[in-house]
Amino acid sequence: MYHEIVLPGKTKSSFLVNGITEYLERLQHYAKVTVKTIKTGAMQGSDEVIKQKEAALLLARLVPGTTLVALDAKGVQYTSTEFSRLINRWESMGVRHVSFVIGGPLGLDEGLLKRADHRISLSKMTFTHDMVRLFLLEQLYRAYTIKAGEKYHK
Prior knowledge:
Blueprint: E1 2-8, H1 14-27, E2 32-38, H2 47-60, E3 67-77, H3 80-92, E4 97-101, H4 110-115, E5 118-121, H5 129-147
Parallel strand pairs: 1-2, 1-4, 3-4, 3-5
């Protein structure tokens, strides 16, 4: 299965970049995972207008036919084991491509959220959008180690 994480802007903190690189390397043993950063430039307008513009840029970068997963504070929360089962279910259903979309500091546009096949929340707590990138990759890695019966997840 191919996973891509699509998000606006580059990760700014070097410690997060290092963690993202680490988990991308670890994930190579289980699945193909890439991170696509979208250049958004300086956007003008209200928060809603900015989110709409950002959503259009994010959606334009998705592979046609992908399973779209939006990371959203109001999404479904899974345990790590449940998330692993979800990925396993996708694989057994023949899903070949999954795109995880992370919004910018304002979150995701409602139109994009409605278009999503799944909405996932990583926690009831609030994290920076940069941190969510690392946390999602760690959870993907954890899901695959659970699936493989490895010790990492304990």
